[in-house]
Structure formats: structure tokens, C-alpha cells
Amino acid sequence: MSAAADRAVTTIEGLSPDGMHPVQVAWRDLNVAQCGYCQVGQIMSAAALLAQKAKPSDDDIDAAMSGNICRCGTYQRIRAAIHRVATGGRR
Ligand code: FES
């Protein structure tokens, strides 16, 4: 049985109708994406983390994002973008 059976699934298109979800805004502000291949998964994982924990630590972020591999090595910008959302854009 699928792990997603009988569960709600949100895609990147469902995150925000206009691309203005705070995670998407932070991603653009900090130019997180490089090639972009992994970024949908990264954004969705970041949004899920922030929905569960408004102010995650670096360890929280590393644990939550560990299922997403970025061959371009954008991990530092991903972490910065998540902190930016968690601090309301002040970091
Ligand atoms: Fe290229 Fe992550 S931005 S794989």
C-alpha cells in the first residue's frame, strides 16, 4: 500500500496560486536555486518543516531536508532561506 494512500498531497502548484508563499519568496530573494532540478522538493520540504516548527534550528533544518539531495550544493542558501522565513525576513 502506498504511504500516501488516503492522505492529502500538496504539490508546488498548490503551495501558492501566485508563487508568493514565504518560502518561495525567500528562495527568490536569496537566489537559492542553481540548476533547479531539486528545488521543488526542497521548497516543499522546507514549507512542511516550517509548518511544523516555526523557528527551526540548523539541526532541525538538516534533519528535515536530508531526504533531498542537491547536486549543485545549494545547502547553505537553503538553510539561509529557511531561517529568513522563520525570522520574518530579518536574517
Ligand atoms: Fe541543481 Fe539542486 S539546484 S540539483
Structural topology:
Layout: H1 12-15, H2 22-29, H3 39-52, H4 58-65, H5 75-86
Helix pairs in contact: 2-5, 3-4
The protein binds FE2/S2 (inorganic) cluster.
Structural commentary:
- The protein is built from five helices and no strands.
- The protein has 91 residues and is mostly helical.
- It has a single domain (17-86), classed as Orthogonal Bundle (DNA polymerase, domain 1), CATH 1.10.150.120.
- The longest helix is centred in the middle third of the chain and has 14 residues, at 39-52.
- The chain is globular and about 40 Å long.
- The model has no long low-confidence stretch (mean pLDDT 94).
- The structure holds FE2/S2 (inorganic) cluster.
- Residues 33-39, 70-72, 74 line the site of FE2/S2 (inorganic) cluster.
Structural class: mainly alpha
What sequence of helices (H) and strands (E) makes up the elements?
A: HHHHH
The name of the CATH topology is DNA polymerase, domain 1
Principal-axes shape call:
globular
- Radius of gyration, in angstroms, nearest whole number: 13 Å
Beta-strand percent range: under 5%
Number of domains: 1
Q: The biggest beta sheet, please?
A: none
